[in-house]
Write a structure and sequence with these properties.
195 residues; alpha/beta; 2 domains; two-stranded parallel ribbon; binds zinc ion
Length: 195
Amino acid sequence: MAAGIQPRRIPAGARAGQPDPHAWMSPRQAQTYVRNIRDAFIALDPQHAATYRSCAARYGEKLVELDRQLRAELGRLPANRRTLVSCEGSLAYLSADYGLQEVNLWPSQGTPQASKQRLQEVAGKVRDLQVPAVFCESTYDDSQQRQLARDIGARFGGTLFVDSLSSLDGLAPSYLELLRHNLNLITQGLGSDRP
Ligand SMILES: [Zn+2]
């Protein structure tokens, strides 16, 4: 499904050097998944090719719209607001596509726990930048990130959905809702003043 996506390598941790799977976090990369899914359906069920094409085109337009919105909103942020701090290194594609600097407590696919040394390292890196908000992914315990927020005088900006959707009545019941939810949290968090 990720064919055609230029893989980013995991920079550190047990899986260092392996492809980072989190390309779906970027609306721009997601357009490739949509094309791949469309083509796979058409190969299996060529009779309905026209339907798959029009559904994929409609879905793709929504991703293009999210991409445009995100570029516009993040484009307004000053340089010191362009640092995206999360728990897991799940935002490398999103950050690269939208000009953000990604900082995480542990690498993609790594052990979900930061050492004391790593926490100090991250705090040192982002304290001087006056980062207004930091985030954590829904599949992880966010207590270290909340502590980091207190330590550097930032706010905990909320829970990003990355590796799974929410329940149907939750904040991210579909993939598009997941992206919208995350993009809203990120633009609000990074756009806000320090607490
Ligand atoms: Zn993940």
